[in-house]
Design a protein that fits this description.
Elements lengths: L1 E3 L1 H15 L3 E5 L15 H5 L4 E3 L4 H13 L3 E5 L10 H7 L3 H4 L9 E6 L14 H5 L5 E3 L4 H13 L4 E6 L8 E3 L12 E4 L4 E5 L3 H13 L5 E5 L2 E3 L3 H11 L2 E8 L5 H12 L8 E5 L10 H4 L3 H13 L1
Parallel strand pairs: 2-3, 2-4, 4-5, 5-7, 6-7, 10-11, 10-13, 13-14
Antiparallel strand pairs: 1-8, 6-12, 9-11
Helix pairs in contact: 1-7, 3-4, 8-12, 9-10
Length: about 325
Amino acid sequence: MAQKTMIQAITDALAVELRNDENVLVFGEDVGNNGGVFRATEGLQAEFGEDRVFDTPLAESGIGGLAIGLALEDFRPVAEIQFFGFVFEVMDSVAGQMARMRYRTGGTRTAPITIRAPFGGGVHTPELHADNLEGLMAQSPGLKVVIPSTPYDAKGLLISAIRDNDPVIFLEHMKLYRSFRQEVPEGEYTIEIGKAAVRREGTDVSVITYGAMVQESVKAAEELEKEGVSVEVIDLRTISPLDVDTIIASVKKTNRVVVVQEAQKQAGIAANVIAEINDRAILSLEAPVMRVTAPDSIFPFAQAETVWLPNHNDIVERIKEVLAF
């Protein structure tokens, strides 16, 4: 198996599905000859042609409308929103149209659309480029929301997303694009959407997280292991639907929980995870479920980003707090 970055794994997944199904189309701003801002689609237009991998105007609303129309004509659109902070320009298409397609048509039509977009902090982007808006998507019924944290998962989950008959929002954390490599199999494989992964087994406390915070949580767990603390790290991978079974099994195992997200406390999905735990396993808890999040403020300009974003030190501190309760 080849060692690949996440961006390479994403390109690989797109190529696999373009070869696998002639109805798969890839489009967005600068995804053609330029290969996208992060080169996620590099080389695809040269291999598959301008009819299947093509640029669109700088109009997210148009990208969304095009995706819906193509889906209704039995294509499988893979549309890129150049940065997820621009999703406000296409919210009606996403939450008001494609998310409701199956219900609105009584199950006679579906919207097999994958919306790809980079997001997330730590790379000093301009305003609106890094915003953590995944909570808006997770709170929109009819959408599946996937956030991989490793190259292996990125490829398998993206292939599953493209093959799904309902709309999938596939969010790619920019900090993870080229931060590390991992063995990724050649050819096709899938990972089930809606299934979390146990990244690290533990017995003292469960850390439930997703995206770039998975790496921060594992780092915190490794530090605490030196102090005799056993931390279990759950990578949600899909934030809608949640893998409640894996969450609750971990809670009942460790009896203490910290939920970690990069998004602000009022955003993201940490509050929903905590509500599910309280509904289903409150008698298993030996301490309140605690959170590590960004502050409830607008995502800051690049100069203040490192101060604002949660990190492994914040996670260590919160784990010690829940253990001492």
